Amino acid sequence: MIDPMRRLRQDPNSETEGSPRESSFQERVEHAAEAALKRNGSVGPLELFQEMRLLQPVHVEGWRKGNEYYRTLQPWIQVGPDKFQKTIRHFQEWVKQHGLRPIEATYTHRGPQGIEQLQVTEDGDPEWEKFYRTHYAPADLPEKKTAQLAAKLNRPPELVVFEKVSDEGNCSECGAELPQGAYLLMEKGQPLCLTCADLDELVFLPAGDAALSRRAHKHSSLAAVVVRFNRRHKRYERQGLLVTEDALARAEDECAADAPARAVARARAAVAREEEDREFVAALAEAIAQRYPACPPEEARQIAEHTGHRHSGRVGRSAAGRALDAHAVDLAVIAHIRHTHTKYDELLMRGTARLDARALIREGIDRVLAKWSGA
Ligand SMILES: [Zn+2]
What we know:
Bound molecules: zinc ion
Helix content: 40-55%
Number of strands: 10
Strand content: 5-15%
């Protein structure tokens, strides 16, 4: 393990060991490390910083996709030297305490010239680069699972083509204009048109048909993922694939051949989802009745069905669990009261601003809630 003090000056005002603030910060680090480990099966410094919200996933994604703004990642880790040092120390202690096993990951970007190593630090210090690449996984993970994890952490990245969201810019090689909507590849921070990137023979397959996409990708000797940056949600969204014409034709044939079998599988899945939805509605109606014993049963049922409808098809275990906690139950009940027991909809229709309308009906909602709670 490396010494975080080596390169970072010690802050003389740093909190002393064992102080309440120090121990709560330690807990924050440990909780974040645990959460990241649980979700991903392993945790490294970059995952830890993201979990602690000291590093935005959008920056990591941009860096991994070879976006020009992210030559290195360290400047995007938003933490002062003192906190940085403490985060690393607590993380390393936590790793030791749990006897986790290191697994090295690679951070690479696939450009037209092949795979390029991505650098986290500004100066590329090998020891620090290794520190950032090192993930930790449970030591008792079965050998097969460990191998799968190592493969996942070292999987070469996909070739990524960006759909342009701004309307200015030119290909850095041939100078061709790259208007909004144009496809381009980033190479060493410079945009390349698809012709210069030798990708212009590929055809675009829009996202949407999972089986067709998977097969076309598999058969295509050269393939790229097309992404577009969504400014409002600050993330890259997959638009589809660029694949060879041959691969697409072969995938279409395969999909046509087993379409009936896949239709049967889809129908089975739909039945299972419906069953899940029904169970969810019953459980939510029950949760409402427990929290609001005086709520008329038919209204509890109505609220549950309405909520179930909104969640339909994506209920799942965790979403259902979330929708059944007390706060979510309250939100569903309040929404129902707002629309059925107050003049809220009428106020909105008359042009009252949403927040004003909410203020006007607050008392009415509280009255119904109190009555239903049996208070
Ligand atoms: Zn060009």
